């Protein structure tokens, strides 16, 4: 099992921060592009080589993200499903479907592939900025789970902003 830690900046227009491993070393780097609408980010590895991009589709009822990996043959889609009390998200990739279940309010999610738990995302409570931990149980899914974690964070940010605008 590997753990990764995400810590956003307090004042931000876009996100630019390292994702740290359990030893506190930079494992990945998030570089969000400035956009008036939508969401676009590039993620690079510890050597600053880009490994994938995330783009949120603008025209969809529920959030849909397209992830394009450096290997142009590998693509993935993350889409939110309608659910009453829990958040349900599907991750569709060439290797199969990853099902994600959890609670967006508490920011606790578990990811399953073919019934096996492959990762968990949890948000640190009582912090000034969004901070969360990703536990990866199946290392073959590390990049997919990092993309999922960033997409979940964007869903939460978008819903929080939408709630502010409705007040």
End-to-end Cα distance: 42 Å
Helicity level: 10-25%
Order of helices and strands: EEEEEEEEEEEEH
Class from helix and strand fractions? mainly beta
Number of strands: 12
Task: Let me know the average pLDDT.
Answer: 84
Q: How many H/I helical runs?
A: 1
Largest sheet: 12 strands, antiparallel, barrel
**Poorly predicted tracts of residues:** none
- Tell the overall outline: globular
Gyration radius, to the nearest Å?
Answer: 15 Å
Task: List the strand order in the largest sheet.
Answer: 1-2-3-4-5-6-7-8-9-10-11-12
- Estimated share of beta-strand residues: over 45%
Structure characteristics:
167 residues; mainly beta; 12-stranded antiparallel β-barrel
Structure commentary:
This protein starts with a strand and ends with a helix. The protein has a 12-stranded antiparallel β-barrel with strand order 1-2-3-4-5-6-7-8-9-10-11-12. The protein has one helix at 142-166, and strands at 2-7, 16-21, 26-32, 40-45, 50-56, 64-69, 75-81, 87-93, 96-103, 108-113, 116-123, 131-136. Strand 11 (116-123) and strand 12 form a beta hairpin. The chain has 167 residues and is mainly beta. The chain is globular and about 40 Å long. The longest helix is centred in the C-terminal third of the chain and has 25 residues, at 142-166.
